[in-house]
Amino acid sequence: MSGRLLAWLTLVGAQILLGYVTRATQGKPDRNAVYHYSTFVGSVVYYGIVLVVLIAISGDEIRTLLAFRPPRSWARAAGIAGTVIVAVIVLEVALNPLLHPDREQGLTPTHWEASRAGAFAASVAALAIIGPFVEEATFRGLGYSLLAPYGQIAAVLAIGILFGLAHGLVEALPILVALGVGLAYLRARTDSLYPCFIVHALFNAIALTLAVTT
User: How far is CA 122 from CA 113, 198, 201, 211, in A?
Assistant: First the structure.
């Protein structure tokens, strides 16, 4: 095992441990957390630390290892991305009556509060742009690049499982693993991080938007 892979696994292991320990000791976040600027600040600090570690592990090969390059074909990327989105939505609809994954994570408010629009916009930036970017760089970027030499299928499955576990959730785990696998497959077929980030950002942005409009 290479030193880079060991360092990456240590980083992801720490994320998984932190996620489940936090959930076990503090419970799920306040549903109105997106209406507080502290959510934005906390997210920026956390993701900033993760990004610094990723850069340190990648060294002078950051663009290559994190797949910062256009996909081979945007049309093909769009087709695969659409399939991933539909598949994950269908799975979520099927499992929601049994597991209620949409309620487990918290963070999604029950109604719109116009007086807190500024804090909400900041939280959306953190959770639908910064978060997805760093998570994609972690898993579909560096993680996939380091695991791909052990086999593409193994890398896609491993990335999906670790991505799901890193969120520290139980009922939502099947959905997160499915999304993680789908995005890893998208990364494998396009050789680019960009389509993965776009899909991930859309999922988070739509979830937050629906939470305050339905």
Answer: 14, 19, 14, 16
